[in-house]
């Protein structure tokens, strides 16, 4: 995310230019309003570190608020799992689950299809 020489440009784009979803959540895509669960591991940790570095309580607040807006839209209504992608171009409502909790893999979350979730008793 932090490309040499462009570090100061990235937060400006993410916070002021990137498309927004209907609830105000910052889009993962630069060209269309789409929310991706992946976003939680990309711009938001970067913004949180930047907020600490700059001692910016307003950037900290914005980052926390954005995490909540992402969760509001991506969290499944029937479980603690999140949908992968919500949006017009790359829609993927497959649910992400923490496979470490399920004792299956050490690599974190990945989309599971309904049949697999049913077999595992998730959701």
Question: What's a concise summary of this model?
Answer:
The chain is 41% helix and 15% strand.
Description of the structure:
The protein starts with 8 loop residues before the first helix and ends with a helix. The protein is an alpha+beta fold. The protein has a four-stranded antiparallel sheet with strand order 1-2-3-4. Helix 2 packs antiparallel against helix 3. Helix content is 41%, strand content 15%.
Q: Low-confidence segments, ≥5 residues, pLDDT <50?
A: 1-5, 99-108
What characteristic shape results from the CA principal axes? globular
The helix content is 40-55%
Distance between the termini: 33 Å
Secondary structure tally, helices: 5
Return Rg in Å.
16 Å
Specify the structural class: alpha+beta
Strand line-up of the largest beta sheet: 1-2-3-4
Query: What string gives the helices and strands in order?
Result: HEHHEEHEH
The largest β sheet comes out as: 4 strands, antiparallel
Q: How much of the sequence is in beta strands?
A: 5-15%
How are the SSEs placed, and which strands pair?
Elements (H helix, E strand, L loop, with lengths): L8 H9 L17 E2 L6 H12 L2 H18 L7 E5 L5 E7 H4 L6 E4 L1 H7 L3
Antiparallel strand pairs: 1-2, 2-3, 3-4
Which structural traits does this protein have?
41% helix; 15% strand; alpha+beta; four-stranded antiparallel β-sheet; 123 residues; disordered N terminus
